Amino acid sequence: MQKRKVITSREIGEKIKKQRRKLGISQEQLAEILGVTYQQVQRYENGMNKLNLENIQIVADALSVPVSYFFEAEKALKERASYTVPDEVRLLKYFRKIKERGSKQAVIGVARLAARD
């Protein structure tokens, strides 16, 4: 039987930091989305604090990645690099900053109309 490698808190933290930077989100912004302090985000990224399954799901959602992102080998991540293109990442970044539900619905409506060509 082949022994499976256990993913460490440090490895998960490195992936959090990598994706956060890719999205152009500061630790403070991520902390606000997650409802924690920026120091807590620092501890997650440094692997000092372990994330439970519920928090991993919340972080994955905040960073627009599937939960499996934190457990995949780098090779698999590179193969899936086209998961989001830069324009999609930028659009999602700005969309998440919209607070009013009505404004979010307006953006969705504009996107829907534009997609019809």
Overview of this protein structure:
With 117 residues, this protein is mostly helical. It is 64% helix and 0% strand. The longest helix has 15 residues, at 9-23. The radius of gyration is 16 Å and the shape is globular. The termini are far apart.
Number of helices: 7
State the helicity in percent bands. Answer: 55-70%
CATH topology of the largest domain: 434 Repressor (Amino-terminal Domain)
CATH architecture of the largest domain: Orthogonal Bundle
Strand composition percent: under 5%
How big is the Rg? 16 Å
What is the name of the CATH superfamily of the largest domain?
Answer: lambda repressor-like DNA-binding domains
Features:
about 120 residues; 2 domains; 434 Repressor (Amino-terminal Domain); about 0% strand
List the helices and strands and how they pair.
Elements: H1 9-23, H2 27-34, H3 38-46, H4 53-62, H5 74-79, H6 86-97, H7 101-115
Helix pairs in contact: 1-3, 2-3
Question: In a few lines, what is going on in this structure?
Answer:
By secondary structure, the chain is mainly α.
